[in-house]
Amino acid sequence: MSETTAPRFDLTGRVALVTGGSRGLGRSMAIGLAQAGADVIIASRNGEACVEFAAELADLTGRRTLGVGAHVGRWGALDALVETAYDEFGRVDVLVNNAGMSPLYDSVTDVSEELFDKVLGVNLKGPFRLTALIGSRMAEGTGGSIINITSAGAVHPKPHILPYAAAKAGLNALTVGFAHTFGPSVRVNAIMAGTFLTDVSKSWDADAFAQRAQAFAAKRGGEPEEIVGAALYLASDLSSYTTGSILTVDGGQP
Ligand SMILES: NC(=O)c1ccc[n+]([C@@H]2O[C@H](COP(=O)([O-])OP(=O)(O)OC[C@H]3O[C@@H](n4cnc5c(N)ncnc54)[C@H](OP(=O)(O)O)[C@@H]3O)[C@@H](O)[C@H]2O)c1
């Protein structure tokens, strides 16, 4: 590599798999990855929505796309998702572990065992299994890039999101651990997201949020498209010396 052959954002010839790719941040990243040249597999629980969006994305970008229904908290579903991805595309070069959920509760004693297990299952157990399966195939093949979407809650665990915060903190730990497990050919990084205005923000009190956002350096929440630059950086060869890293994208949230 020299000054004139420095890597670029180009993902032509690569295959990306985005969990939770049908809505919110996952949808924006799927569009960004396809626009950068990647073929894209979109997975979420609602398979129909994934198929629909995959068709839209193919029309928009001319890339090959596939929508697949899969619940990331269930290992059997993830095994099937991986088989489908490799059967259809023969490879996965970029995995984005984006699917997540953070149900609110009034008091910690309201958190049932079922809810706790579900939050840990979707935000931590699923990404572990998918990274184990795809990371090992990447390492046996030509390498790849794995991106985990974690949350500022991991390092600022507020009282109303404790199981979620613990799961995302665990995902930060997996990010570093898997970078060592599958390095050097597979890079594993996290985007630690702050507050983005997706479906999750629809239930918020807008005025109270606007007030709270005055404490952010950016003085506002992020638009879903504003995560794409970080994802493309980590997906592409531009980040060839970045691995085991946790990149904060939060508009300067205290
Ligand atoms: N928005 C924020 O402020 C914010 C802040 C920090 C971190 N994050 C993280 O960023 C990621 C994306 O969040 P978002 O705001 O874009 O969420 P969102 O708008 O609610 O979208 C979530 C996506 O994940 C899918 N999903 C949910 N549960 C799933 C499951 N069990 N299996 C498979 N797919 C599932 C959903 O599709 P289906 O309903 O079809 O399954 C949807 O595509 C999450 O990991 C979240 O924790 C978000």
Describe this structure in words.
- α1 (24-35) crosses α7 (228-235) and α4 runs parallel beside α5 (162-182).
- A seven-stranded parallel beta sheet has the order 3-2-1-4-5-6-7, sandwiched between helices.
- Helix content is 42%, strand content 16%.
- The chain starts with 14 loop residues before the first strand and ends in a 5-residue tail after the last strand.
- It has one domain (3-195, 203-249): NAD(P)-binding Rossmann-like Domain (Rossmann fold).
- The model has no long low-confidence stretch (mean pLDDT 96).
- It is globular and about 45 Å long.
- It is α/β, with parallel strands linked by helices.
- The structure holds NADP nicotinamide-adenine-dinucleotide phosphate.
- NADP nicotinamide-adenine-dinucleotide phosphate binds at residues 19-20, 22-26, 44-46, 49, 71-73, 98-102, 122, 149, 151, 193, 195-196, 198-200.
> Which residues form runs of ≥5 with pLDDT under 50?
none
Element-by-element helix/strand order: EHEHEHEHEHEHHE
SSE class: alpha/beta
Number of helices: 7
Number of strands: 7
| CATH architecture field | 3-Layer(aba) Sandwich
Q: What ligands can be seen in this structure?
A: NADP nicotinamide-adenine-dinucleotide phosphate
Report how far the terminal alpha carbons are from each other.
38 Å
Tell me the domain tally: 1
- The share of residues in extended strands comes to 15-25%
Report the major sheet: 7 strands, parallel
What global shape is seen? globular
| The CATH homology group name | NAD(P)-binding Rossmann-like Domain
The CATH topology name reads Rossmann fold
Which percent bin holds the helix content?
Answer: 40-55%
